[in-house]
């Protein structure tokens, strides 16, 4: 690529110079990339693509920040980067993971992630943290909760704020997934904020949808009522250890019976229910075995590729919808008349439908 940087020019510790405020002896970096990529420099699309394809984590992080940006200039550059790396994406297994708050999503993901690394896989975790509706801030604590996994060379964890989107699954989440695939990660986990917010969006983005549930917490009926179990390719009862182990096994039987009530999915796959304990590690490898069985079965039937194609079309229409919405609100006459019409709707002197029709006719 034209203008691609020398990705192996970084110097090893302790001989290399680094401007990080960390003693060289205690720094975990094996290679210092400060000489190759000065942080003040704005990369070109070729430099971004070269760094991502070389597996440079710092360039990957900056590229994800770029696709999350709402600045028009950043969006144009991000699209150029995505166009270059797209032929190298799509080779991973995409797994969506959701569950009720307190089910132990981060702990389970860390346990399963470490198991995948032992199998020689490269893992990327896109963890979405809730955003405060008042302050607009996010704690972004998933990486802290997965400290063992975050320290591994073959794992990449990217916490992101949910923003205004329900469940935190937005266009940038899908674009970040594409970038991680191009960087060589063959397994992608997408962790949602929690049950009942945006499981449909996650389901439309991944190959396998995993639902984490607790035993004895009243989730059996709630899971069925919310329709979440209809989307699940597997259900895992977490925290199946100690005194909770018997309750977890009973819950497994109840969930398995409940899943038989649903019609067969288009994939032809019968959802499985397992029990696991991130604390002891029991049942964690079996979860990944279920994922592999699903991938093998759907690839043989052709459903795996058809679903990917359907998802691509869905995101095409979603991108069109978002683009039209942005263009609409960017119009000067819309911006000029919207405040007055909004006030009329608030006062009840004009219906919301009438105000919308008037704005759309501009």
UniProtKB/TrEMBL annotation:
GO terms for molecular function: GTP binding; GTPase activity; kinase activity. Keywords: Kinase, Transferase. SMART domains: AAA (SM00382). It comes from the Bacteria. Transmembrane segments: none annotated. GO terms for cellular component: cytoplasm. It holds the Pfam family MeaB. Gene3D superfamilies: 1.10.287.130, 1.20.5.170, P-loop containing nucleotide triphosphate hydrolases (3.40.50.300). Residues 91-242 form the AAA+ ATPase domain. PANTHER family: METHYLMALONIC ACIDURIA TYPE A PROTEIN, MITOCHONDRIAL, METHYLMALONYL-COA MUTASE. Belongs to the SIMIBI class G3E GTPase family. ArgK/MeaB subfamily. This is LAO/AO transport system kinase. It comes from Hymenobacter chitinivorans DSM 11115.
